[in-house]
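sanity check this chain:
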Amino acid sequence: MKKLSAKQADVNKKTDILKEKIKKKYEDMKRVLDEDLRITLTQLEMEAEATERVIEEQVKRCYALTQHIDRQLSELSTSLDRQRSHDKDTETEERIAATLKQTDPELIQMDEFKNEQLLSLTINLLLFIRSQVPVTKKLFQSYASAVVLDPNSAHPKLIVSPEGNSVSYTDTWQEVPENASRFDTTLNAVSREGFQEGRHYWEVQVDGKTYWELGLTYPSIPRKGREEHCWLGRGSDSWCVEYFNGSYNAWHQGVAHELTHVEGRGFQRIGIFSSRPGGLVCFLGADTMTPLYCFCAGTFGDKLLQAVCPGHDNQGTNWQPLLICDASRSRPIL
């Protein structure tokens, strides 16, 4: 117990240190972005102020001209010298024309091309940042593993596609050969190949479904009879997340953990990450990389197989198949 307590304290300490380091890096990134934003906005403000000063100067020149014209008109109205009046009229017209030419608003232009370039660079920066976050998405994509379902493991009321990348429920009992690996009462199917080392990530499209179970299992999971341990997560040899009519539960050793933080939310994809070095099985709403639940097994005792259960028809609301996705490809974060 002392050793376990010490281990727990060590794990918590290391996790806190890592969290603090990552937090500081995010704070550094925020400072960099805030400073870049400040510089960009300051530059735009300076350009706007320069243009505003020019416009104010031009307005003053126009106002001075109108004052001068008013004075000349007053003088002309009292002048009896027609020639002088004619000369002044000509001089005034020339000055008006010159001032209007110099203060033409069309001569004051914003550098639209430069501004469009600035906006384009800002958009590119945003797209780049979005392509890198959440960082867990980029990390898990590097662990993406191919999953091919084994039709010989599927319950007779399940149809596995020829490619092994989807499974759907049917009311019709399929004429399939009986074998030791086939589930005969639970609507499960497992992958052909498992893994015994490393880190692995895979995603399943669950859009449009009202009932499903996804997880990992040892090959030793019971496959025959009505034992509860045949269900994913009900025994010590499997882990799963179950979705039913808007509610989520994480299962292991027959214990359900209600996931109230995502209750009522619908995800298009569910991601499953496993780490044999860390003994972890983690579930995520892959659309936004929302954490659902994480199990720590400590040390896995056998090879792990990917496992799926598309569920029954659920009163006609659950006919959509479960589709294995290419988890290495980027998808928009909603």
Summary: The radius of gyration is 36 Å. The first helix runs from residue 2 to 78. The mean pLDDT is 87. The domain at 139-325 is CATH 2.60.120.920 (Jelly Rolls).
